[in-house]
Structures are given as C-alpha cells and as structure tokens.
Specification:
This protein folds into two domains: about 80 residues; about 100 residues. The chain contains ten helices and no strands. The N and C termini lie close together (about 10 Å). The radius of gyration is 19 Å and the shape is flat. Helix content is about 75%, strand content about 0%. Helix 1 runs parallel beside helix 9. The longest helix has 26 residues. It is mostly helical and about 230 residues long.
Length: about 230
C-alpha cells in the first residue's frame, strides 16, 4: 500500500485546473445573489472543516466514536424515510434498508472491518443519493449532507495510526499532520474571506471548496483493498 505516496499527493491538484475552475465561477458572479450563495458556502465549509480538525485531534477510540455518531444519525434519518411511505423512494427502498443494516454493523476498529464497511456504505449511498436528487425528493439535500459528513469522518479515520497498522503507522502520522495543516490554512482563508465582500469572497470560497474536495478525494484511496 503506497500510503506515503498518497500523503504527498493529498490536496495537490494542478494549480492551473483549480484557477481555471475559480475564474470560470468568478466570471459568472452577480452581486448580491452570488455573494449570499458564497457566504452560505463559506459557513458550511467552515463547519465541516472544524469537524475535520476536531477529528484529527482524537485518539483511535474517540475517532471511532465520532464515526459511529455519524452512522447513527444517517441510520435514523434513513429509517424515517423508509417508513414515510413516499412513492418516489420506492426504487431505492431496498437499498435504503440495506444501508440501515450496514450502518448498524460493528465498530470500525480494525483495518478489515473499516475497509469492508466503508466500501459497502459508500456504494449504497452512491446509489441512493443520485436517485433521490433525480426524483427531487425534499430530503435529498439532508441525505447528501449527512452522508457526506459520514464519508469525511470515515476517510479521516484512515489517518489513525493504530488503525493503519505497524507498517503504515509513520506514513499515516505524516498524512495526518499534513491534512491538519491544510485544514487549518483553509479555515484561516475562509475566516478572512468572510470579512470581505464581492468577487474575492466568492473566489476564496471556490478555492477552499476545491482544495477540500481534493483532500477528500485523496483520502479515499487510503487502505483500499488491493
């Protein structure tokens, strides 16, 4: 497992790609509507980054508890949807019931259980989320937020040295430190941008969102089954 290589790649997307995305977004900026959208994005990013920073400070047991808390919230939410009787959810009802089962399985305290559960949960979420969005179900956004929070917490759990095992312990610690530093820089950037106005706010929000997405994408590759 090339975790050390992943550590060096985490968050390092092409500057040209990021700037191109940002500039495209800035060109479409319209005051004040887009400013309100940018501020809403900033607040949501700030909350998610704060939660991620908290998790990087936790030991293994507390970090697993953090993931279990998120699993339980998503489970309870899905349970309500399953029993709502909403016809638009019929095509994914079986997937939702399967997701409920997965979310109630044992704690992710070993590398094997972590890999197995994360893979199944993400697969089911990947089937349910788009179907809810396509059907324009009113709970689609909340499902997206809850499942994304769980996804972030599961990915960050992979940085725990005890979970990584003896071979990958040093690499996991390196990536954990680098990820925490990146998150702290993003938090500072968002704080500064929230005190500005206009295109700069929108640009900073887009840059931070792109950087956060890159960190999440790279963390997904950790401890995958070969």
């Amino acid at each position: 497992m090339e975790i050390e290589a992943t550590a060096r790649l985490a968050g390092k997307r092409s500057e040209t790609q990021i700037q191109a995305d940002v500039q495209q977004s800035v060109r479409s900026f319209h005051w004040p509507g887009q400013y309100r959208i940018a501020m809403k994005m900033i607040k949501k990013l700030q909350q998610r980054i704060d939660e991620c920073i908290v998790q990087t400070e936790l030991g293994k047991r507390e970090a697993v508890d953090y993931v279990e808390e998120s699993k339980e919230k998503l489970h309870d939410f899905v349970e309500k949807l399953v029993h709502s009787g909403n016809e638009s959810l019929k095509p994914v009802k079986a997937k939702m019931e399967e997701l409920q089962v997965q979310l109630k399985l044992g704690r992710m305290e070993t590398k094997d259980t972590y890999n197995e559960q994360r893979e199944k949960i993400e697969q089911l979420v990947g089937n349910i989320g788009p179907a809810m969005k396509e059907s324009k179900h009113q709970a689609a956004d909340e499902f997206h937020d809850l499942s994304n929070t769980l996804s972030d917490r599961m990915h960050l759990l992979a940085l725990n040295a005890e979970l990584a095992g003896e071979q990958a312990k040093d690499e996991a610690e390196i990536l954990k430190t680098e990820t925490k530093e990146k998150l702290s820089r993003m938090k500072k950037k968002l704080q500064e941008s929230s005190e500005q106005a206009g295109e700069k706010t929108h640009e900073a929000a887009d840059e931070t969102k792109a950087a956060f997405t890159d960190i999440r994408s790279n963390l997904k590759t950790l401890f995958r089954k070969s």
